[in-house]
Each structure stands twice: as structure tokens, then as C-alpha cells.
Here is the input.
Amino acid sequence: MGDGIGGPVMDCLSGNMFRMYVTHFRKDNSEEYSKLEKIQIVKVENDTSPQTERTLEDLEQALKGKFVTCNVQYRDKKTDVLFCNVFIQNPPDGF
Here is the structure.
């Protein structure tokens, strides 16, 4: 896929899955995205912690309320979950 989406993390569902409010889309995306998407983390690109196993509490502390961008790898057709590389960002101006 290779699409890009961005927005704030609304809530964390497990140690490696969260729900995101999608506010930003790349112009050249090949797929359509809902306002709310479930994201399964493949990799956190700018995570400074070396741990690979995260608890729900770890993820909430790291991501809840933060603005993230996601490089979409693929969508699981059965669960409708997006598998993404996640980047923690500063929110855009006016956000």
C-alpha cells in the first residue's frame, strides 16, 4: 500500500494497537480511509525505548493524545485493521 495518514491517538486498545482520529491524508494515497481507524503497530520509527513488548499502559503513556503519522503497510480484510509503521510527530500548525 504505502499510503500515509495522520492524526491524534484517541485510545489504546492493547500494547500494540490503538484507535486514531484521521485528520490528515497524503494526496497520493491509493486507498480511502475512515475518520476513525484501528492501527496495529508494525514498528514505531522514532521510539527511543529498546523494548519490543509493550503493555497497554506503556502504549498509553507513549501515544495517547499525541499526533502520529502512519505509513500504511496493508489492511487486514477480516478485521479491518491497518498495519502501519508509526511516527510520533509534533502536531501541525493550527491543530
Summary: Strands lie at 4-14, 17-21, 24-25, 36-44, 67-76, 81-89. The helical segments are 56-63. The first strand starts at residue 4 and ends at 14. The chain has a mean pLDDT of 89.
